[in-house]
Design brief:
The protein has 206 residues and is an alpha+beta fold. It contains three helices and ten strands. The strands form three sheets. It has a four-stranded mixed beta sheet, with helices on both faces. Strands 1-2-3 form a three-stranded antiparallel beta sheet, with no helix packed on it. Strands 6-5-10 form a three-stranded antiparallel beta sheet, with no helix packed on it. It binds zinc ion.
């Protein structure tokens, strides 16, 4: 994983393969005129692009940014939520979601954390940035201080709980990106603790 950088630890796909098939399957029509899209060589473009045969509109397919926080209590515990929806239903993850087009990453992370946990947070250091080419997303994880609000559950978050760093529920973590964010946070704040045992995702898995 080292030659791809730390942000590639959470992806199994090699780079250079174009959009994942599930995403390519949804890109059939030109958003400008509704004509059929075709993958082909475009002058001035360094790789094949989807373009409209009728009007020439080029559709660039880029990853979306997921913004998330790892809220930390004053006692140094980590707030995680038990997901109510697929993917990862019933498993633990940090609060987060897709960045909206009219907000900054910090604003999006604060909004998602409030929506999912009831907590008002102040994002601080970036713990890490994690690529998942399979899902066409890049996940940004902020360490965050809790500055207000009250923990509440929702259909999205069946449970919201504070875990001591020693008690993070590693076997029940929902996503690789959550796993890596927690591993990186521990390495930064609690290097005295061992790496998680019974690893679902090891240092060599991505
Ligand atoms: Zn068109």
């Amino acid at each position: 994983m080292s030659e791809r950088g730390p942000d590639a630890r959470s992806t199994d796909l090699a780079s250079g393969g174009g959009p994942p098939t599930w995403l390519a399957a949804s890109l059939n029509h030109c958003p400008s005129c509704g004509g059929p899209l075709e993958l082909g060589t475009i002058p001035g473009e360094e790789r094949p692009r989807l373009a409209c045969a009728a009007c020439g509109h080029i559709v660039y397919v880029n990853p979306r940014l997921v913004v998330s926080t790892v809220p930390i209590t004053e006692a140094g515990e980590v707030i995680l939520l038990r997901r109510g929806f697929e993917p990862g239903r019933g498993l633990w993850a940090q609060p987060g979601g897709f960045l909206e087009i009219d907000e900054t990453p910090t604003e999006g992370a604060v909004r998602e954390t409030l929506e999912e946990t009831g907590l008002v947070v102040a994002p601080g250091e970036i713990i890490g940035l994690y690529s998942r080419l399979e899902a066409a997303v890049v996940v940004l994880a902020y360490e965050a201080r809790i500055i207000g609000g009250d923990v509440r559950t929702s259909p999205e978050a069946l449970d919201v709980r504070a875990f001591a760093p020693e008690s993070i529920p590693w076997p029940e973590i929902a996503f690789k990106t959550t796993w890596w964010a927690l591993v990186d946070w521990l390495g930064k704040r609690r290097p005295d603790l061992p790496a998680p045992s019974g690893a679902r995702w090891t240092r060599d898995s991505g």
